[in-house]
Amino acid sequence: MISLGPLALALERLIAILGIFAFLAATSLIGRRHGKPVETSAWIALFAGLLVARFAFVAQNWPAFAAEPAAILYIWQGGFAPLPGLAAAGIVLILSLRKTRALPAMGAAFAGIALASLAATALFLASVQRPLPPDIVLHSLAGDANALDDRKGKPFVINLWATWCGPCQREMPMLVEEASRAPVPILLVNQGEEPAQVRAWLARQGLTPAHILLDRDQRAAAAIGSAGLPTTLFVDSEGMIRELHVGELSRAALLAGMRKLEK
Q1: Alpha helices in 129-243 (DSSP H)
Q2: What is the tens place of the pLDDT at every residue in 190-238?
Q3: What is the dihedral of CA 207, 213, 214, 218, to 10 degrees?
Q4: Partners of 132 in the β-ladder
Q5: pLDDT of 184 strictly over 90
């Protein structure tokens, strides 16, 4: 994860952004030799790939989007299927450049950058999968202790949040709603705030406090290694962190993560 003050950017997103910039840089170099049509084709392929990647993700998670169709447009929450997107971009690139001498160079640049990005993402996702640190104890708003070690044997989700965090505020109604009915427990762990402050904020938002826990000294966030809020972790029945999501979480991403935990 990359953290710049209050801004936290998940590394897999950064890899994707760097891959896009690398492709455009390579396109610019190749375009100097073969002419402007190369750059035009590259931009068309890029937009086609992003569009297909987004709609493939929507199709894979349609039940979540059917309940809130406007969320299809919330691309800042993430939610792209990389393989369909890369396939679409590659096909568009081949078709648009098939009669030009630029195709071999553009094809090699596209394939090389795509493979490097996928490999880097796979390595990052593998590094995320680690045991949840032991001896993390949280507290309910009433002051009752909740040891995460006691939850070993069943999967659960942890969401680290704060009342001052804008993305946290936007996702909280959805998280509270899903926590009330999800088969996988969702623990909404507030960071560094007093119980009265959290209760007051929940009351103003009309949200129930049933699944709220407190990490007043932020030891849980430090142990987990969270560098920004919100952060969501998907923990399997053996206590392994299987996925880590930094930034605002969509309903589709939450439900997809929980489905993987139940397999």
Answers
A1: 166-179, 195-205, 219-224
A2: 999 999 999 999 999 999 888 999 999 998 888 888 878 999 999 999 9
A3: -120
A4: none
A5: yes
Query: Domain tally for the chain?
Result: 2
Same domain, 135 and 121: no
Which position has the higher pLDDT, 263 or 119? Answer: 119
Q: Which of 75, 99, 128 is where one domain is finished?
A: 128
- The C-alpha atoms of residue 38 and residue 50 are separated, in whole angstroms, by 18
Phi and psi based region of residue 116 (left: phi greater than 0; alpha: psi -120 to 50; beta: remaining): alpha
Bridge partner list, 7? 4
21-29: Cβ within 8 A, 24+ apart: 22/113, 23/109, 23/110, 23/113, 26/106, 26/109, 26/113, 27/106, 27/109
Clarify whether residues 210 and 233 are in a common domain: yes
**Final residue in a domain of this structure, among 83, 112, 128:** 128
Residue 3, pLDDT score: 43
Are the CB atoms for 93 and 110 separated by under 8 Å? yes
Q: Indicate whether 184 and 222 sit together in one domain.
A: yes
What mean pLDDT is reported for the chain?
A: 91
CATH number at residue 156: 3.40.30.10
Mean pLDDT along residues 145-172 = 95
For residue 253, give its domain range. Answer: 131-262
pLDDT confidence tier of residue 8, bands split at 50, 70 and 90:
very low
My answer on whether 218 and 194 are in the same domain is: yes
Statement to judge: residues 120 and 146 lie in one domain: no
Sequence letter at residue 138: L
5 has pLDDT over 90: no
Q: Are 119 and 241 contained in the same domain?
A: no
